[in-house]
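User: Second chain of the day. Same drill as before.
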Amino acid sequence: MKIPVDLRKRLEASAFLDLQVMMEGYAQAAANLAWSEYKQKLNFTSDSIDVLDEILVLAGASPDMDLDFEVRLWGSYLGEVLRRRYAGSWELSPYPGGVASIPAVEVRGSRLFPLMKVYRRLTVGDEEDLRAFYAMVTERLGKPAQVN
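Assistant: Same format as last time:
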């Protein structure tokens, strides 16, 4: 899928207060794009993971795709669903085996790397299914955080 140039420029030109605000902004942009381009609703619930996975299948990695931006956009959404469910937080963390720090969601002492999962979904394919990933994460982390 071709991302509208103005969306990318607007997000990349934004002066986000911190990492949390930036990831929320990208996640909301992903939800807006899902509706405008795919007529699919991403509402930050567990059920929306299936919709996100379908969008990534449709988008697929292509030679003209800006993979870095798409990973940031859709990975932010996946991370926000997890962060909100478990009252986690965004942090920059080294990816295991890597040298660079990337955005990760910290939940109950665990670090989740939603951007890397989206990258693998786009580049590897079906074996990196988001539904299976989300099921595994929710099984390991247990009940969602209590919202007061």
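The chain has a mean pLDDT of 91.

User: Great, on to the next one.
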